[in-house]
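Inputs:
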Amino acid sequence: MPARRLADQFESLEKQEHAAKFGLWVFLASEILLFAALFGLYTAYRLMYPAEFARAAGHNNVAIGTINTLILITSSATVALALWAVRGGLKRLASGLVLFSIGCGVLFLILKGVEYNQHFQAGIFPGEAYRNAELTGHGAELFFNLYYLITGLHAIHVIVGLVVLCWLAEGSLRGRFGPGNQARFELGTLYWHLVDIVWIFVWPLLYLLRE
Amino acid sequence: MNELLRRLLFLPQQSSTMAESIDELHYFVIITTMLGALLVTLVGGWFLLRYREGRIQTHPHDYDIGAKPPLWMKVAAVFALFTLFVVWWAIGMRQYLELRIAPQGAFEVEVVAKQWMWKYTYPEGGRSIAALYVPAGRPVKLTLTSRDVIHSFYVPEFRIKQDVVPGRFTTVWFEAKAAGVYEILCTEYCGTGHSVMRGQVIALEPGDFDRWLEGEDLGAPVAGPRYEQPWVVGNTAPAQELDLVRTGERAASTQGCLRCHSVDGTPHIGPTWAGLYGSVVPLEGGGKALVDAAYITESMMDPLVKMHAGFAPLMPSYLGRIRSGETAAIIAFIKSLRNVPPEPVAPTPSNDGGAP
Amino acid sequence: MSEERDYRDDPGGTSPFDQANLSFPPDYLRDGRGIRSWLLTTDHKRIGVMFYAIIVLMLGLGGIFALLIRTELLTPERTVMSASAYNRFFTLHGVVMVFLFMIPSIPNVFGNFLLPIMIGARDLAFPRLNLASFYVYCVGSTVTLAAAIWGGVDTGWTFYVPYSTSTESSVFLVAVGIFILGISSILTALNFIVTTHTLRAEGMRWLDMPLFVWAIYATSIIMLLATPVLGLTLVLVALDRIAHIGMFDPRLGGDPVLFQHLFWFYSHPAVYIMILPAMGVISETVCTFSKKPPSSYWAIAISSLGIAFVGFFGWGHHMFVAGMSEIDAGIFGALSMFVAIFSAIKVFTWTATLYRGNITFTTPMLYFFWFLFLFTFGGMTGVAVATQSLDVHWHDTYFVVAHFHFIMVGGTITAFVGAAHYWFPIMFGRMYSERMGLLTSTSVFFGFLFTFVPQFLLGNAGMPRRYYSYPPRYQWLNVVSTGGAYLLAGALLLTLINLLVALKWGKRATPNPWGSRSFEWMTAAIPIKHNFETPPVISRGPYDYHLSEEQAHARTKAR
């Protein structure tokens, strides 16, 4: 398999890979702050409209939410297994596992789409277009705005993550990653783990804290 | 001493009961700040001079790479600063709580801010625009909200300020020490008219105030410095109609008309009154109208029905808010300006201060 | 072969005609000719220089807006423009100065150029990401300035809702522009953090790094963690404008004050992004020109981290009268004052470093002297406005404007220009005229004083910010301030001209013209593309003035 090219500024390949991994962790820290801003807003409004938020959360489909959580956790596990496979030189197993994770991600987005559709049918749109007659009140509208914002931002990250996973799948199949050469692969898996972890915080806030 | 420092620091008069103690903290903090900065700079400057290269060449033993201030000095400096900050914070916090929590029995007024005016509603229904009438020597509590964007109610002479937020109520209180006129300035940027969204707190002696509250027109001029308006009417009113015109001028001020209408031709939020009476003006939606007493009255009671073209629909209705005597006086006032020529370099009316 | 050469033998600054005869590697300016070698470079020094050019342009642009504002304020009523034009100009002055100049200035110019050299690295950890950061900055600036041209923005740089979500100006475009600039910021910060952690030369522990590196490192942490919050907040404003998703709209039950919390969560740490690098510059110049180590290295390094950390918890002091609870106000006030203790520790340490030093009085040192006064005074007025009851009077008046200009101009720009002079030899291989430098520096200082001291008094007198027209009694102070502004602008222009003249006609620089011990001066007069022929091995501290220059070089070289 092709040797990794050592860049000029690094003394050794090992240091270069360590820097890349560290860099990704640093980047993930900024991503966490991005979501934290939305979570902060959620917290503030929840404290302002506790009953309405609980009622509105009750309207969310907790089944889909929970299934989606399990899907993402599973996909994180398979992606971690794929890294193990890459380390062991098991090219086809690795790419198979990554493809499975991609499938999970796609399924996640499909289920999200189903859920959005359910909301649209009930007249629950973001912003001014909100039309639901049953869950009226500012708190409910704000809850659903936050719902769309948080899941929307998360979905964008899922899509980016899927692109990264495709690159991982292709790379492991083509043999660009292998034992002793899995640094970049690991970076990709780290990003996917972030996508999963953010959702683990989203799930209780939007689905479980209901009346 | 207080007065000397107040003037040196350009602080306004201390016209509220809280102002003097706030200013005392101000002096403490600012003087310490200035002395501290000066001290650091002088010491630094002295070192720069004393240990300059040229001098070290002739006094090489003064140069000591390892020279450091002793630990006790560092600790003392930090400790002193920390203590100073704690003291300032404590006094500031106590005063802040006093500023925020109105005393019992305060006279309450509701304030609505909207682009670009202040509107007041008094208990038992009285109303005014721009001029806030309050009793002097008694705490006054304002409950404020906004109709549109965030504004901020600021009376420098009272040292009070409170943001006015749409969708919620905020409160502020003050007690004017003496009767007088005190300027109100909007101090949260709110658009084109932000810097002209001003007003006055008119504090009256308790007796006068009660009479005002009952609807009496106070003949005697209000004590205290007159708020300087940018557009000053003075010598252009015809002599024989002076009394009605003067009343009209005063009414135009207290009713808030002069917030939007200039009297010397300067373009502003509303049409200028200079040269207006007797002219023919274009209307929004086509057509023209002659500006006579009937038109002016209708414009005051139902401003949007025959609106002067080229201006934003901002004028509130004065129906039920102004006595017919005042209406007549204002009309007389406008009439008295019919020969005032607009300023020669005045641009077209709608671009300066008009809403987009 | 090159290990035997003594870098001090290199006369430095070779002319292009000599290049063919040189066996010695050319310096970074001449290593690769043509515009493509610049636009596609991954050399951190060239990227720093490209940033330099654009950032100085942005400073000029922001300065022009400032002069327009000040000219309008010469008279109480209309002077040269309408109210709506004025509102656009003060907004743009703020936006350009904060986002296009101040935030990137010292980090992206001097941080880029010097960080790798100071830690003995050949480049940053991610050179291509560095170039990307530059181009993202260019795109963001273009979009932001497009908003200025296409309708302008009249919200103030703080974009308070509901005004920013309802005004007709180009808020959407400017929000997008600043969001993009934020990405550039985050990428730079990431690069600096990883570089500092992973690319230090052999033998260089954290406590051997120059203090400028500590400053840039602390700045990068703030940039990394605070900028995403601003990005998201502006996205929410943009979404409100195009899709009416009103997270802060009171008509939909939203709270406009929450916008302020989110906005200031970034924008308060942002001011520490602006001042920490300046403090780093000061630390370097003071030590070099006193020929002494800092009187406490540890104090300066740790206080940089302290400012970065505590700075995250003070944002509420912008909202004392916005309608927050008294307890919150008390906490924010206390924490805001606390940060000043760290700054005071630095001021004390710098002054103590001068004590019994051997001081060369150069232009950078004069800038340090102005900084000492202006930053100390400005910083203490910061503690003053953190005093809650006093802030009730001062909030949103010219007092606050004066306070932050004392820090941003009197602090950061003073240090920026000082850095421009200090590192001029190593960046361009030339020396500037010292006499002109001292003269222009003095005029900058006095121009500054005349501009901003009257504004403290205007604030005391009650003149609010962002006022197009004002009560006539404020006029004469405004006139003095405007006069000062023109003086300041002229002085800064002269300063720039002095440096531009030096670029072409300045005396050629020798390596380490200041006799510093800091690591960046151990290279050739102008560093080569990869900074060092062989990676240095460090066996000394950055301020070891007890060593001779020869000994210092010896302990920086590869064995």
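Chain B touches chain C through 88 residues (CB under 8 Å). Flag for discussion at group meeting.
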